[in-house]
Amino acid sequence: MRQLLALAASDLRMRIRDRSVLIFALVVPLALMFVFNLVFGNTDDIEIEPVTVAVSAPAGDDLAAVVGEVLRSLDGMDGLDVTVRETTADDGRRQVEDGDAALAVLVPEGFGEAARTGDAVTVEAVRGDEAGLEADVVLSAVDGVLDQLGTGAVTARAGLAEGIPPDQLAALAEQATAGGPAYELRQGEASDEQLDAGASLVAGQAGLFLLFTVSFGVTSLLVDRETGTLARLRSMPIPAWTIVGSKALVSFVLGVVSTSVLLLAGSFFFDADFGSPPAVALLVVCVVAAATSVMFLIARVARTSEQAGIATSIVAVVLGIGGGAFFPVSATGRFAPLLDLNPVAALLRGLGTTSGGGGVADLGVPIAIMLGFAATTWVLSRLVPDRGALA
Q: Which is deepest, 48, 166, 191, 202, by most CB within 10 Å?
């Protein structure tokens, strides 16, 4: 044990002096998070601009006037600032073209009569090039009004066809238009295994660059062989597993430190809350153990540091993207369950649980996936013929 710690401490000092470790473990992922924060950090802050709507409705048509009344009622509702201008159809189009109005709603002549009889009628909406989300809200309100009027007309015509007395049709149509849908919508909450966009990006980047960080252990092992350092170590009364174990221990320490720093920094940039620190710490330790286990397998098959770097890059990209390092991955098909066995995906799942208030007792599945991945990879490294650094 003393030999293991002495080798690990010596190698750790060398890795800290190595700028490439700091670049891949901290500088590059932090720079990416900073860029992503600039690009996506304010996507949830939606600003509703004031909107001017030009409305053209035939005079004396009470149903056509309803459209303008509904639009006026939107002013001041949920932060909307709606200004309604009554105008003609040609002037409404001109105002939109000149940029004086974001939207023009043109109700044709005979709209009320057509709505009452259930005949087809078209209300034209002219939208300006600079119209934004507020124009969509206004158009949704117009669509709602037209749907209600159409529902009333259809109900009245159906009532006439069924022989309902005319004096009862008005009440029937009013009930059909004001009764609302036969279903109820309630706002729900996302599953406690889901992170929001910012937190998911932070966790994914931390998992991706963790795989690059732990690769420095196997890379340094091969570099030691190329420079002759490994031969001198093996000539000493030191077991071979101690040399590999010291590299793995260095990778594990670097992985824990870098992942913790990235999660903390990402929480600051994206205002993400990952939940209970002890639970998050347990997830970090388990995912680093899973990532470090890959080092044992690469150390058995890679013959040069260049081969080890290429193999590590392939593994990191495949596991990182498959685990949702940049965007959520939802796969279907026969092999889709394999994505759930990804340690990066398990990290995101576990952090989603802790961010929703879960504790250590709720992390059974993610931890089992990470530790199972580590055990499987270690067993494979024992079965694969040794053609690497210690061959």
A: 202
Start-to-end CA distance of the chain, whole Å, equals: 23
- Tell me, yes or no, whether 185 lies in a domain: no
In the chain, how many domains are there? 2
Are 201 and 220 members of one domain?
yes
How do residues 127-168 score in pLDDT, each as one tens digit? 877 677 777 777 787 777 777 666 655 555 555 555 666 555
DSSP-based three-state secondary structure for 64 = helix
CA torsion 211-31-280-271 (nearest 10°) is -150
- Tell me the residue range of the domain where 313 lies: 2-42+194-383
50: which 2 tokens?
Answer: 């004031």
pLDDT tens track for 243-271: 777 888 888 888 898 899 888 888 887 77
| Pair of tokens at residue 126 | 């002219």
Candidates 88, 81, 325, 79; CA nearest to 202 is 325
What is the spatial distance between Cα 105 and Cα 68, in angstroms, rounded to a whole number? 9
Q: Can you tell me the distance from the alpha carbon of 139 to that of 98, in angstroms, rounded to the nearest whole number?
A: 20
Q: How confident is the model at residue 229 (pLDDT cuts 50, 70, 90)?
A: confident
Whether residues 344 and 207 share a domain: the answer is yes
Q: What pTM was computed for the model?
A: 0.61
Please write the tens of the pLDDT for every residue from 29-59: 888 777 776 766 555 555 667 878 888 888 8
Count of alpha carbons within 13 Å of 150, Cβ hemisphere only?
11
Q: Count Cβ atoms below 10 Å from residue 100 Cβ, excluding itself.
A: 14
> Within this chain, do residues 202 and 294 fall inside the same structural domain, yes or no?
yes
Q: Are residues 165 and 200 in the same domain?
A: no
In a domain, 377, yes or no: yes
CA angle 305, 284, 211 (to 5 degrees): 20
